[in-house]
Amino acid sequence: MIIMIDGYNLLKKIHGPQVTESQRAAFVNLLGAYLKRRQHKVYIVFDGGPCLNPMKEKQKGVSVWYSGEYQSADDLIISYVREHKNKEFLVITLDREIRQKVGECRAETADPVFFYQKIQDLCHPKVVAHNNQYGNIQKLSDEHNPDLDSLMHEAASMKTPFKDEKENYLEKIGMSSDRQSKKEKAHKRVIDKL
Q: Which range marks the domain in which residue 42 is found?
């Protein structure tokens, strides 16, 4: 499977409107760790870059593309999927135009936050402490501090935004339903490969 990522679309969803070079590098490193566990081809496409023309480079096994000054990352993603429409694609973006145009080529799409959480879970599994009074949050010291203990109890009872979005996404694509359309089943098959 080929995974194409609308780079800034994902990173801005995760980190906010200002994406730093270190956040971008950390994400490429995470994708490199992901590739050690899965045998997919991963392309991440960014707007702009160091040159006027499109540029491609490999980092940690990930193909990193820059669109250059004369076209957008959106254009690169759409044209690449169209040129290779006989391949199995998963395009990671929330951009409506990209989703619609790659969908015409039968490429599947996924929510960036869902994808990010999925690869985070795979590459950095959470250590769950059993019999922990704070749920899945682990206190690293034995020091008794009522304020800290209260804060940890409160944090343990909170839901994480990623978890909520993941559950909503799974409901939206019909993974919890027994009656799925052919399109929903195909989408589920691609998502299950992540």
A: 2-112
